[in-house]
Amino acid sequence: MAEQGPHIGAAEERQILKERFNDETAGFHQGLGARQLQMIAIGSAIGTGLFLGAGGRLEQAGPSLFILYAICGFFGYLILRSLGELVVHRPSSGSFVSYSREFYGEKAAYVSGWLYWLNWAMTAVADATAIAIYIKWFGQYSQFLADFPQWILALIVVILVVSLNMVSVKVFGELEFWFSLIKVLALVIFLIVGVFFVIFGTPTGSEVGFSLIQDNGGLLPAGILPALIVVQGVVFAYAGIELVGTTSGETRNAEKVIPRAINTVILRIAVFYVGSVLLLCLLLPYTAYSATESPFVTFFSSIGVGAAGPIMQLVVITAALSSLNAGLYSTGRIMHSMAQAGSAPKFAGKLTNSGVPFGGILMTAGVAVLGVGLNFVVPEQAFEIVLNLAALGTMAGWAAITLSHKKYVSMARQGFYNRPTYRAPLAPFTNWLTLAFLAGVMVLMAVDYPVGTLTLGSSLLLIPILMIGWIMVRGRVRAIAAEREGFTGAFPVLAKRPVVSVFRVGRENSTGAGSTTSTASLHQVPNPHSERDNNN
């Protein structure tokens, strides 16, 4: 029979958790409000993966792409609902890394944190380079830009975005608000114009509607395998949706604001992603699109709107800037959380007077700066492998969210936690379903030869690197965990194993004369894994 927990009250649980994990958010300022968070939630999943990458994926998979976006969007929503419940349980800027620590121990937090940092570090390299290329595109209108060295442009972009991130979380919030607003307005304009043309026809009189799909090979013109292989790229297009979890430690009334933002995600996915891709298929044959041009530019150019190119190029630059900005913000907070536990350098835990974790931000920025120079000498295929490694980091983060939520639900059923009224639907069934989906994406990546296969092959190098890294930091991690043992309350976190699940709390009144103070005594339950853990 499963060991039952203490069934303590929700208010007491929140206070214990707040005290236990206070070091992760100490020094941060709650500078984000509902207005900023709503727009961050909208814009975090709308990036270059849609504005630029959708063209190449349409070329490969055909009209079935809108179905793939719907499927991946559904699982993205399930992941966000799991994250939302964890945020209501305990808001933390450490996000899923902090939850991995709470439910699975320090090793899990160490692995998930560094993989997530790798994701955004690789993305920062790509974003900085992409922005420079996008700006150079305007060289056809300006000789100054045409002659300007691309690497200097990339360097300027990195310095500018890093500098703005260093000011305060409020500046980050405002930047993301306006970046997201530009992206959303661009999509809304396209949706309005596209729907109008589908109903009333285009100025050129070209064929529109579902007959375009039927007359050009149907939903799967190239077959099912090319469409399935594109799934990994679609998953990467949704990278960033988990950003709302990282903002929770710096959001006012996060327990109320974040669930409201997450609840509207499914509608945004349906309208902006699925709706946009479906409209693109109804306006032009899928063969009209390519990986070298934004599909939105392709459409507007087809109806004679010459200004579409420069305007959409500016929107794509905005999307890339937003991604770089969000990546620096997110990794700064994640690395700060890890530094507090000893699994990242102490430098990553340093804060400015305005509560900005500049150490973690500068670590990511350093990789981006190195990437500015390296991308000119790295072969194109190797650079694609780097981007696929970023996709692996995204999936590792999503898996950490799902696994943490699954463990949380399991322990809540045993009485160790009180689940909030805001809950992920049909858990833990949806947790298992999401894990199966992520495993399927990994298999599809493996059969995508040569890039996907080489990516998974090269990712095996991360295993010895992470193992060596853990050996180097585990002494510090365990020392910090040992200091916490005297103040863990009902929810201890140790380095060796997930201890929450192996402790039972007995509440008893103090026997001191005249004392009515309630204390917690910890009674350790035998752990079948303790012998193995002590050897690690």
TrEMBL record:
TM region(s), chain numbering: 61-80, 114-139, 151-172, 184-202, 222-244, 265-287, 307-328, 356-379, 385-405, 426-447, 453-473
Membrane topology note: Multi-pass membrane protein
InterPro entries: AA-permease/SLC12A_dom, Amino_acid_permease_CS
A Pfam family annotated for this UniProt entry: AA_permease
Region span, Disordered: 510-536
Gene3D superfamilies to which the protein is assigned, alphabetical: Amino acid/polyamine transporter I
Keyword set, alphabetical order: Amino-acid transport, Cell membrane, Membrane, Transmembrane, Transmembrane helix, Transport
Biased composition (Low complexity): 510-521
Protein name per its UniProtKB record: Amino acid permease
Organism annotation: Kocuria gwangalliensis
